[in-house]
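Human: You know discrete backbone vocabularies at least as well as I do. Show me how you would write down a chain together with its backbone fold. No explanation is needed for now; the record alone will do.

Assistant:
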Amino acid sequence: MDRADARVLRGAAVSAGGVRLEKGPVVAFFDVDGTLVCRDPVTGPGSFPTERVVRAVEEFAERGGIPILSTGRARVGIDQLLNNLPFRGYVSLDGAHVVLDGKVILDCCFPRAVLERMVAEMLRVGMPAFFEGTELCLELNASGGSLYNWGPVACDLEEMRSTKPDLRFAKVDFVDEAYGAYRASDFLMEELGYYNVGEGSHELVMPGVSKGAGARALLAELTAAAGAAPARVFAFGDSENDLSLFETADVAVAMGQAAPHVREAADYVAVPCADDGVAQAMEHFGLI
């Protein structure tokens, strides 16, 4: 028995000491990029899982499991997954926005003063960045050009405000090209949460915001609604921003191509995403 299998059994035990009681269903959190869908080195993030992974998620739900998305993407980036697969909810924007059965459980954004300081610092050090919110995403780029080609571009705070008057953003993405500029700002490095999510991509979030915190909020809501805690919680991921989710789960599953420190934090390492790691791991644990 490997340590993952042993932990499954511990999660299923009945205990008066705070261990989950095996009354509710099994819950599984699925990261998107690099886990459910593969990143192509040329075209970038994929849009939909392979047929084998799709069937695995569907069968898991048919057996009474509760599949949940857990992603750094904004809501607009997961519409296809939510509309075509049986996900009961999602943790998006690295935990800033959480929804279960259509109900918003958590919705955080950068405080206005913090966001204004972030923009000032990025302009000062020459750091193009992509700001993500629940309703809209935009790029900050003083040149007026686009480094990311993911959405509208603003040159400064006033242009950001004209595009998104409430300035509600919860996460920032940037690439290796902007990493040196990021390192030139003590404020950005010290006052915000940071993830290196691999393949030249980086993320900034508010302190305290994480996939793990979002998952705990969703699990608390699910438990209250069902009257019973989940029997077990699985987490599937591949990146640094999945580590807090791994800590929340009973069983953490890393994809085979994940960075060494992510694989080390997992209870079980599946084959790579490109080889349908999610489906292989679900078969291994008898979830399908």
Observations:
- Residues 5-22 have pLDDT under 50 and may be disordered.
- The domain at 112-205 is CATH 3.30.1240.10 (Hypothetical Protein, Haloacid Dehalogenase-like Hydrolase; Chain: A; domain 2).
